[in-house]
Amino acid sequence: MTRSVDEIVLFDYWRSSASYRVRLGLELKGMAYRRVAVNLAAGEQRLSEHLTRNPIGAVPVLDIDGLRFTQSLAILEYLDETRRIHPLLPTAPAERARARALALIVAADIHPLGNLSTLNRVADLGGEQAKLDWVRNCIATGLAAFEAVLAESGSMPFCAGDAPGLADVCLIPQLYNADRWGVDLTALPRCTAARDAFSQLPAFQAAHPDRFAPVS
After folding, report:
1. 18 shares its domain with 66
2. CA–CA separation, 112 vs 179, rounded Å?
3. Dist CA 17 CA 119 (whole Å)
4. What is the average pLDDT across 139-143?
């Protein structure tokens, strides 16, 4: 389906880490966009209106260039391939592969174990304490692996050098989740250093979930 090429529209949920990744990418590249909230807590992702955007019933969804894209990493790579300002991936093949590997530790290994539907199912089976134990363990284990990969590189202050890229854009939302669930980050000095460096950039506050939290 052809869509307007004049406006970028992001369908997201304020606390969705996948949505947060895309907001960070858009902000780093200085791209103006209109945000349309999809309330996951209220089940709006399962309504027919949203399922026409994304049949799997998830966010983010990005309308851009008259096209529609789903899946945060696919969206970020499309942005990087079509907007070369502030590249998110290094140019050298080996470095690009390493950055993608870091991103996938978050997006493929940690995130699915702590998303809303998974946590609801764990709570159904074992109760709220089981849910809390589960999510803390999954995040801590995954971030320990991320930290170990970072430790193999001397790149600083960000995950892949002197500027934030794809790996950082995935890491920052996961550290937000870690804080939210009370995960101890003291054994992750490289991860937290990357967050400290990123927090100095305007994109950090512009994309931060707290900026979009619903008013109670």
Report:
1. yes
2. 18
3. 14
4. 98
